[in-house]
Write a structure and sequence with these properties.
It is a single chain. The chain is α/β, with parallel strands linked by helices. It has one domain. Strands 1, 2, 3, 4, 5 and 6 form a six-stranded mixed beta sheet that branches. Strand 4 and strand 5 form a beta hairpin. The chain is globular. The chain starts with a helix and ends with a strand. The relative contact order is 0.21.
Amino acid sequence: MYSLESQFDELLAKLKEPGFLNPAQSDPVYYFVYPPEKILEVKKAIPRWSAKFGLAGFQVKRIFLSEILWRTVDQSGWWEEWLELEKYADQEDINESVRDALRNDRFINTLKEEVLSAPEDSVILLTEAELLHPFFRTQLFENRLNSDFSVPIVIFYPGIRSGQYGLRFLGFYDVDGNYRSTLVGGA
């Protein structure tokens, strides 16, 4: 039977393996894949899991993707215009405009600064990935971080696993089979 707790225990065991930061292996990025209907359950469990990471010797740095998203939107200077456009423009056109603002380097650079500021004995938890919909998916920033980090990053990913490397973000996007990081759960 599926259990978020046993899935977390599997993740923690992987992070505690002695060779997990071996440079010959892939980047230390882990997708904690869970059913989208468990979003609230995962949010409630993260503080408890953070304590378990601490007991395992990791400092926990939690990065709320929603905060970076809203900061980027605010800094774009377009918020008022988007609100005005919302009255009469096609929603997809507005979404595309927001996507353009988020795809510039500001979002990625802010995320990169947060990641790089973590102490060496940290584990970084990227949460609230679901709020990136419909603008983009997590693979975009994973690819753009370009191995500039050495601490493990756990991306809490609401979706469905498809095969060894495929994921369906939020369970309704098409399968993307290009995830190169370690996938935990979701099977």
